[in-house]
Amino acid sequence: MMALVVENAGAQTGVLLLKRDSDFTVEAETRPDSDEVTVLNAMAFKDADLPRSIIRFVERFSEPIVLDDAANEERFADDDYIRYRQPKSVLCMPIMHQNTLMGILYAENNLVYGGFTRQRLEALRVISSQAAIALENAMLYEDLEARVQQRTAELENSLNDLRAAQKKLVESEKMASLGGLVAGVAHEVNTPIGVSVTAASFLQEKTEAISNQSAPAEADWAKYLQTAKDSTQLILTNLQRAADLVKSFKQVAVDQSAEKRRTFNVSQYIDEILVSMGPRFKRTQHEVTVNCPENLEIDSFPGAFAQVVTNLVMNSLVHGFEDIEQGRITIDVYPEKEGIRLQYRDNGRGMDENSAARVFEPFFTTRRAHGGAGLGMHVVYNIVTQTLGGTVECQSAPGDGVTFDFYLPGNGGGSAKETENRDHP
Predict the structure, then answer these.
(1) How many whole angstroms separate alpha carbon 56 and alpha carbon 62?
(2) Whole-model pTM over 0.85
(3) pLDDT averaged per 10 residues in sequence order, the chain, 425 residues
């Protein structure tokens, strides 16, 4: 547009100013020493070398001004630009659209006086009216683009906040699982330690009684020795049981918090996970049956594996067995290809087709009113597909329970024929 203005006006210098917010910016110019138009990318008006008084006059009255001998024009004699540059012919024209000032065209010719004739002025009026429409469209597009960028940035920030919140909730879910493990430790270890304390107290009582006798009878002495033997054996057996439980719980806890890869026995590890969840089954008639080869091992992430099994069991207890007195969970594991196939089933309430299709979605839950966060199965899906690198599918129907079919890669071993059935009340 600047090239067209200069050509039709017969100008040496041409400058395009646009009205932005409260003042002008210089967008483009052409000078006598160059035939090319220079784009200035919104230079501030205060930094431009232009006759400010002339441009402010046009801004105020929204009418074009033509000066045949600008250097001797008394109205603008005090303008610094006029005093130092001594321009000859000057034309300054507003760019109007729907009675709104869009910008200003400034043209200058220092070769002749009276260089901007009435015919040239009329030609520039036509050009400026077309330019006003083009500028309006360009500014609308620029504003729309800026709004889109702003909205995109806001959505990205919201998405990042949502991901951070989701990550925090997932971590909370993991911590809740670890808290359940601690409760399992207290519940399971309490019994053998309690038996040991009782046996030790009984032995202490019998020892004090026989020590108070000056000359115990042979029968009393033999009876005391048998009591001591039985008590120490009972203490040793139960403390060993407590030590084994603590060791198992410790390994599961470390796995869930550290997320390190190692080879582990799948059968034994599922047993340890279910023992740690003992308090969840307390005062219920629900049962868990595990069918897995005793020597089946996998090189994977045991902590992630434990989280998957824990969340599946909790999903059955909280959702599947609601209003069901005697639920049954069956876990079948067998080697397949370079990994293992794990099928988890319960005989609970089941889900309709829509719920089964959405079960792995974050924050989807059928128990929102009861405080459900809707993250348990989403955590399962993320762990299986990302951490463990496997796959999972869900099948369910109302009243027919639910089946989760997993494939987990790893160096599986053992034979599917060597399967032991174990019931966990």
Answers:
(1) 10
(2) no
(3) 65 84 83 74 85 92 90 90 91 86 87 84 76 70 76 80 67 58 59 79 85 80 85 81 64 55 90 80 86 92 87 88 90 92 94 88 63 67 88 92 92 40 49
